[in-house]
Design brief:
Blueprint: E1 2-4, H1 11-14, H2 40-50, E2 61-65, H3 73-76, E3 80-83, H4 89-99, E4 104-110, H5 111-117, H6 119-128, E5 133-138, H7 173-179, E6 184-189, H8 193-204, E7 210-215, H9 227-230, H10 235-238, E8 239-242, E9 249-250, E10 256-260, E11 266-270, H11 290-296, E12 306-313, H12 319-334, H13 339-343
Parallel strand pairs: 2-3, 2-4, 4-5, 5-7, 6-7, 8-12
Antiparallel strand pairs: 1-3, 6-12, 9-10, 10-11
Length: about 350
């Protein structure tokens, strides 16, 4: 596990204070080493460009990564960082965020890292509502190990490890996060900088855990997996953009919509043929998550019209704050603890 500090405290402050911080204050001196054309470059640039908006000095920001192509992200941010072990970034970030509430803690992970070996750590960080922001790059493939299928690869995916096609049913990361009772769940796309930045803005305003799935193109091992959502001629037809408080319509002229069926489910249809009162109006702050689940399942994959944006943004107590209050309450009631006394209390014995 590599722990990286890089004089980040001199970044924005050296430029004359946090108010004058720019993107370059968050760009490290390390050579960025991903495959040419990788979607990670676009995400990195968007995050570096967004960081000054936080108004937080670089030395109070920590990025924690796991293993995979996304794991290199930590070296390219001029902040503090931890390049941890496979799948364990949420566990390490949990300890950091709860012990140091003064820090802004970010997790960068991939679909293999987060949803395979790291699946258990991820869901518990979400259900506890740890104050971390999680960026999960989903390229639907194992890129660093050279093209094996992942937990989000579609059924029938032919790869080096599945030459006759994958038999596994893939995870739906947004639905998984919603099932873990995450309080903030969103999806964006690597090359849509404006949309991604807006989602990051909403995530950082949210107290507690924020999970963002980012469709990220792997041009070497899974090129154009998201072309239906990114292609110039197809994205208008397939991006279902969610905006709180607004009817969900899509298509170049809003000719398609999401509507409520009589059984309460959500479907897509032609706007002209759907009664206005049945067109779904998105409510990201709805406590009950069924509508968000339905939006997550409008498509079976990014080759169909797919929802992007913030699915859910609800309030729940933050774990670290609850823990601090409990410790304070216990201290007031019981006084300072005595670890040695605790270890030797109750049923103890000596072995001679």
């Amino acid at each position: 596990m590599a722990v990286r500090g890089n004089g980040a405290g001199d970044g924005a402050g050296g430029a004359g204070g946090i108010g004058t911080a720019t993107k370059k204050d968050f760009v490290s001196d390390q050579e960025v080493r991903w495959c040419p054309g990788c979607g990670d470059y676009a995400i990195l640039s968007a995050v570096q460009g967004f960081m000054p908006e936080l108004g937080i000095p670089p030395h109070q920001i920590v990025f924690v990564t796991g293993i995979g192509c996304s794991g290199r992200f930590v070296y390219y941010m001029d902040t503090y960082g931890v390049h941890s072990i496979h799948g364990r970034a949420p566990a390490i970030a949990t300890g950091l965020a709860t012990s140091r509430p003064d820090l802004s803690v970010w997790i960068v992970t991939g679909d293999g890292d987060a949803l395979s070996i790291g699946g258990n750590h991820l869901i518990h960080a979400l259900r506890r509502n740890i104050n971390v922001k999680i960026l999960m790059f989903n390229n639907q493939i194992y890129g660093l190990t050279k093209g094996q299928y992942s937990t989000t690869s579609e059924e029938g995916k032919v790869t080096k490890s599945t030459p006759f096609g994958s038999l596994d049913h893939p995870f739906n990361p947004v639905a998984l996060a919603l099932g873990a009772e995450a309080t903030f769940v969103a999806r964006s796309i690597d090359i849509d900088r404006q949309h991604l930045t807006d989602v990051l803005r909403q995530a950082t305003a949210h107290p507690g855990a924020a999970f963002i799935e980012i469709y990220q193109n792997c041009n070497v091992f899974n090129d154009d997996a998201f072309i239906a959502l990114t292609g110039k001629e197809t994205k208008g037809l397939n991006q279902i953009r969610l905006e709180h408080g607004k009817p969900v319509v899509f298509g170049p002229s809003g000719e398609r919509c999401v509507f409520v069926e009589f059984d309460g489910s959500l479907r897509t249809g032609d706007t002209a043929e759907v009664p206005t009162e049945l067109v779904y109006v998105h409510d990201a702050h709805r406590e009950e998550p069924s509508a968000a689940f339905a939006l997550a399942h409008l498509s079976t994959g990014p080759t169909q019209p797919t929802a992007i944006g913030v699915f859910r943004d609800v309030a729940r107590p933050v774990y670290g704050e609850l823990m601090d209050r409990q410790i304070e309450m216990a201290t007031q009631k019981l006084g300072q603890g005595d670890l040695a006394k605790l270890l030797h209390s109750g049923d103890t014995w000596e072995v001679k």
